[in-house]
Amino acid sequence: MQLRIDHDKPYVWPVYLTVSRDKHRCKADLLVVAPDPAVASWCAQPIDIGVDGFVLEPPVLRRELIPMITDPDDAARRPELALLSAMAYGDTERATEIAEAAVPAFANLDDKRSGFT
Fold first, then answer.
1. Helices (H), 1-115
2. Model pTM?
3. What local confidence, expressed as pLDDT, does residue 66 receive?
4. Residue 83, CA distances (Å) to 9, 18, 66 in order
C-alpha cells in the first residue's frame, strides 16, 4: 500500500522481489496498491536497476480499479477483495461502512488465507 511518494521505494522494491524469489525459490512479483492518482502515476514509473535489460515496471492497482465492497455477504464471498476495498477507500466518507462489511469476513478465514508469509 503506497499512500505517498517515497523516493526510497525505487531502491527497495527490487530488493523485495529478489529476497522473496530467493526465500521461496520461485518467481516473485510486485503489486503496488496506490489509491491516490498522483502517487499511482509516480509508482508506475520504470525503475532502471543499472544492468542492461533489467528494468522493473511496477504494476499499480489504482483506486478506480478496486470495487467498493459494502455488503457483508459480498465481503464474505471475496474477503481478499474486501481487504483491498478497505485499504483503497479507508480515507473516504464510506470507510466505516466498508470496514463493517469487511471485518466479519476475516473471522472465518482458514490459516492459509489469513496469514502473511
1. 9-24, 37-43, 72-77, 79-89, 95-106, 111-114
2. 0.75
3. 94
4. 23, 26, 10
